[in-house]
Amino acid sequence: MCWELWFFYFFTYGILIYSIMLICIYLLIGIYSVYENINHMRKHEFTDYSMVASSSVVPAISILAPAYNESASIVENVRSLFSIYYNNLELIVINDGSKDDSLQKLIDAYHLVKVPYFVNERIATKPVRGVYKSTNAAYKKLTVVDKYNGGKADALNVGLNIATKKYVTCIDVDCVLEQDALLRMVKPFMSSPDKHVIAAGGVIRVANSCEVRGGKITKVHVPKNMLARIQTVEYIRSFLLGRMAWSKLNGLLIISGAFGMFDKEIAIDAGGYDTKTVGEDMELIVRMRLYMEDAKRPYAVRYISDPLCWTEVPTSYRVLWRQRDRWMRGTVETLWTHKKMFFNRKYGVLGLFSYPYWVFFEFLAPIVELLGWVFLIVYAVLGMVIWKFYFLLLIFIVSFGYLFSASSILIETFTFRQYKEKRDVLKLLLAVLYEPVIFHLYVVAAAIRGILKILLKSETGWGEMTRGGFAKKNESVKSDENQKLQTETEETANHVKEENHEK
Question: pTM value?
């Protein structure tokens, strides 16, 4: 048999075996995640988070919100952070050298003035230009830091240096949190006596087309934009049928940069955020885990399956391309930096399962798919393709993908029920049909582009991410909300004055 046939059979059966392994792993992880999600709901169904909020032993939390050119929504988004239901809290907004009027809008909206402030620089960062506090007692929890531009990781490191609380929550400033998000997120840190919980992450949901008033999600809608709608399906599938399983196996390698909570001291001892990668959220988690593994200290990284954080997703293919390019570059950089874990028994589940999974099925998946298309074209030209078998296999793979995505939507409908209207569920199910046609191929192409950039060292930055801003979506209620905010502010200020007088 000639070498061409040997190569043909080797590649064909190699792709087949890879696909079967990928499907089996997805099924196992998905089934396990559903089981654990149901258990989580049963355990926490009757939890009274209001009691947790009023408890004197609730850990103190610092919220770190880096902002760069967020003028369109910065005031509205900071307002949403004030609506969070938590007692012992400080809010730190880091203006990372914005070129727009983000800082000025914050100064005007929250009555900020520059104050003398000592920054204990335990992590080296770009210089801080100033620290601002409000003259209004209603905003006493707010600290705004203005610094020279150094990227998101550098801004978060400044936040770590300034934060005064035991735990830090890092969020994207364009996100809207559920009011009880911190109460749910902090619970693992309080209820794991046998292991030191060093980090926890929650579910991220898509806020496009949702109604946002007073910094709160008041009504959930399926995005009108088809691209955002497909990403909604993608987010549901990823968070609902993936991360819970890895969390229970204590093999979770990533917590979304949009919303995560960390033990501040462990994060600082591990070196803080790496400013040389665009995947700083994943890289920090891996490094914190390695720090604990090398110290031989029992620890855990937890995942909370309740919907906690809402964020905007790209509505144009141009912005989506940059985002997915960056995601892949961050993944490759992290995997390469910590390659010593690969099948290393010293790191247990982390080295034997989690890291290899990311290498074979997150990093290599787009490469294998690209090679599949290339060799399909070559073999088709040479007349070596058995078309009947090919189309049967294609129908099977597409059907599996649809059923897997549809299952995640239906499971969400029967558990967390964020999309309560039947027509919204139907829209998501129809969006799944569109996903493999254009969206999936586009995302794979962006991932390949990201890998090429790493190999060619042609780009290291984030790239500009354009957002519409929640404020623009709610202009019809803006004046009413501003009046309501002013009233609430005055009431809060009077309440603070009364408390101080009593003391």
Answer: 0.85
